[in-house]
Amino acid sequence: DSAEAAGTESSAASGDTVTIGFAQVGHESDWRTASTDSCLSVFSADNGYDLQFVDCDNDSAVQLEAVRGFIEQDVDYIIIDPIVSTGWDTVLTECEEAGIPVIVIDRTIDDSDKYVSWVGSNFKTEGLAAGEWLKAYTDAKGISDVNVLVIEGSTGASATIGRTDGFKEIADANGWNILDSQTGDFTQAGGQEVMESYIKSYEGKFNVVVCQNDNEAFGAMDAMKAAGISYGVDGDVILVSFDACTAGLEYVMSGDINADFECNPLAAPFVEEVIKRLQAGETPEKEVYMTEHWFVNEDVLSTINVNGEDQDLTVVTKEIV
Ligand code: GZL
């Protein structure tokens, strides 16, 4: 009943269950858990949904197979959070031929537009914001020689590409030295392993570590602590992170992480709006941007201007966490 589901006579309106196939990246981070929980709670049986959930365990081949499985099942809608941003046009063409609308969340698909809507955040903006904050922070602290180690997210993920590009734009503009940039695959173990190797190669040469998600930052903290390297507000190394999950914000409040650039994981309510509009025979927005916030420990800067827009920074207090 996929054609009917996409048409005016909505299955949900007629009281039928709406079947959704969701191919999720994996379970690599706290952020990912929040993203999954958001979908499970919105697309519940009580709310009239039958959610076919597949945790693709960071494996692109598994993710493509999951989407083809949803086509076989003839679900009403398919949700994809794409592990990597390319290699999608063939399978999205198969979804289109099967008459099953696809909604993309969080990361982007960059080699096909055969989907109804994308709901997510602007990763390059997050990278630019991190760079702008670091510029203000190092200026305020009188740090002129900025030597950065970057622990990237999963290779090929649009979140990694955007955060890397945005931060590098500011680093290049300010003549900072990015000593190295390697993937920690968005995991705590990955962050620790990369930081341990960085310490072997660059100890004493770096004063900033940028982790592209909180779980990598937790791993990097363990590695620096084990090596007797101080970090955070009172440390020798400035620690910057992304996601701003609860545990990350607790470390911002304690001063272990200097700044954390949030990307909102709660996409499901926005996806439900897209589905409801499709059920009503309306055309949803192609891109639905979610809010982002910049969290800091110290108030050296109140507003960051990124892409021509001013955005306030939030000093983390226990009410915020
Ligand atoms: C970003 C999301 C990233 C998070 C990581 O929107 O795709 O994937 O930053 C997660 O925590 O692994």
UniProtKB/TrEMBL annotation:
GO cellular component terms listed in the entry, alphabetical order: cell envelope
Asked whether the keyword Protein biosynthesis is assigned, the reply is: no
The entry's localization annotation reads: Cell envelope
Keyword entries, A-Z = Signal
Gene Ontology molecular function terms on file? carbohydrate binding
Similarity comment text for this entry: Belongs to the bacterial solute-binding protein 2 family.
Q: What is this protein called?
A: ABC transporter periplasmic-binding protein YtfQ
Span within the entire protein? Answer: 54 to 374 of 378
